[in-house]
Design goal:
Layout (H helix, E strand, L loop, with lengths): L10 H27 L6 H4 L7 H12 L4 H14 L4 H21 L5 H28 L2
Helix pairs in contact: 1-3, 1-5, 4-6, 5-6
Length: about 140
Amino acid sequence: MFDHTNPVTILVPMLVIVALTFVAFIKMATARGAAVKAGQDPSFYRAHLGTPEPEGATAAVRHWDNLFELPTLFYAGCITAFVLGAVSGWTLAFAWGWVVARLLQSAVHMTYNNPSHRGGGFILGVLFVMALWVNIGLSICAKL
């Protein structure tokens, strides 16, 4: 599908996660808007004090927050591989594996939100990001 000899290909999985982040933002904004329309006190959003948000809005906010945690290691890994010229078939496989795991985790989180199903996607994603960084670490060591 992608030519691993072209280092720019490592940026494509990043674009998918950026798109997912914007989808999560829209989901969060929609859920919060619906909560306010249904009677949530809008002043809650000044300091998050008072009656808590409904579960759906809280889950959407948590999902948005999650996209700024482990994905930072993914972004850093992809950019590091690009800068070092260390984009290989394995690098792309680990990056795309992480994207698929993250999309699965997000699909669960933004729909029926079963923690055990979501957790499976999360663990798989962690393994892919670890493999990505081991691969990059080996490339770094080979260049020393």
